[in-house]
Amino acid sequence: MKKLVFLFVFLFLDVKAIPAAEGVMAMSAAASLKTLTEDKKKSIFGDFFSPKGGLILEEVMLSIDENMNDRGAVKVHLVVVYEHELVEELMKMSSDEYFRGVDQMIKDYPDKMKIFEWELVAKKRVMPWKKVEYPTDHMIPLAGFVFAKYSSSGKHRATIPPSYKKVKITFEKKNFRVDYEDKDKDK
Question: Which among 51, 114, 160, 161 could bridge 144 via Cys, Cβ 3.0 to 4.6 Å?
Fold first, then answer.
């Protein structure tokens, strides 16, 4: 609704001004718009005006089952991606393919992905919310993926939808699941 009101003001409000003032008003509006969209991950204006959209993930919680991976350890990567080509590549990969190729991907896309990694042991526990820190302010994260290295067969991959701020990842016996916090809720 706020986006619609914002558009209405800019598109349909007929403001009369002398020609010299129009240039000043245009520069002022551009500066204001830049200020409103600087924090692209949190601002409704950033979401609306961003040409690429963007991942707004802020926090992750890990829940581990005592029988996870038949009581074996699980290597986990949360991958934040900044490159469309890499997003498409990761969408096709299973966890095994990802872990075999991750070192080369880091070399090929050194500034286009950020990896958060954990080595989990099978023990019933919940790790509290962890803040997702983005390494750069000038690039918009496009997508997020979770890869888990289970010993059982399967893709063991999940995509994080861009519109959620919080996700809870639960690691179970043969696989994991991702639950999404209501995107309209704040902390």
Answer: 160
